[in-house]
């Protein structure tokens, strides 16, 4: 689980996210992926060197990322580089940069923002077969961006609810996604 900007690792526990996942038979690990890792562009390297080896050593064969807001772009950045190591993504109100709307002619923006949108356009509803579940609140200030992102997904992989960019919106969405995953 990768937190959003300004969130702490404990935010996941405070809002019951590990409990939701455990109730469906999933183990969880909350990563201290703070804003500094994004600023110095070391997040992917930190995950590659310090997190994924621990999971593999513990015997986990399926690794999913759950990214909230900024954690969503972190999950996408990692998956873009190490697609073969990830089984799926759950993205709740993922920050996708400030370059939307994407019209195919984008030439400005941060390099990672352009790379993510180009990558998503090429791979559509999955990244090389890796399922992506997208959830967001319809009153989120970036709901229009998420709506554009959602166009690349089958409707059964997109979960919306009333609400904004907050944990109270994301929690019921996660419950729904986890229930869907449990039955697959």
How many extended strands?
Answer: 5
Radius of gyration: 15 Å
Helix content: 40-55%
* Proportion of residues in extended strands: 5-15%
The stretches of 5 or more residues where confidence is low (pLDDT under 50) are: none
What is the CA-CA span between the terminal residues?
21 Å
Structural class designation: alpha/beta
Average the pLDDT over all residues and give the rounded result: 85
Sequence of secondary-structure elements: HHHHEHEHEEHEH
Shape: globular
Number of continuous helical runs = 8
Q: What is the makeup of the main sheet?
A: 5 strands, mixed
Question: Could you explain how this protein is built, in words?
Answer:
- The protein is α/β, with parallel strands linked by helices.
- It is 44% helix and 13% strand.
- Strands 1, 2, 3, 4 and 5 form a 5-stranded mixed β-sheet that branches.
- Helix 7 (143-150) links the parallel strand 4 and strand 5 (158-161).
- Helix 4 crosses helix 5.
- The two termini are 21 Å apart.
- The model has no long low-confidence stretch (mean pLDDT 85).
Set out the fold topology.
Elements: H1 10-14, H2 17-23, H3 35-39, H4 43-57, E1 64-68, H5 70-81, E2 88-92, H6 111-123, E3 126-127, E4 130-137, H7 143-150, E5 158-161, H8 167-182
Parallel strand pairs: 1-2, 2-4, 4-5
Antiparallel strand pairs: 3-4
Helix pairs in contact: 4-5
Structure keywords:
alpha/beta; globular; 184 residues; single chain; 5 strands; five-stranded mixed sheet; 8 helices; 13% strand
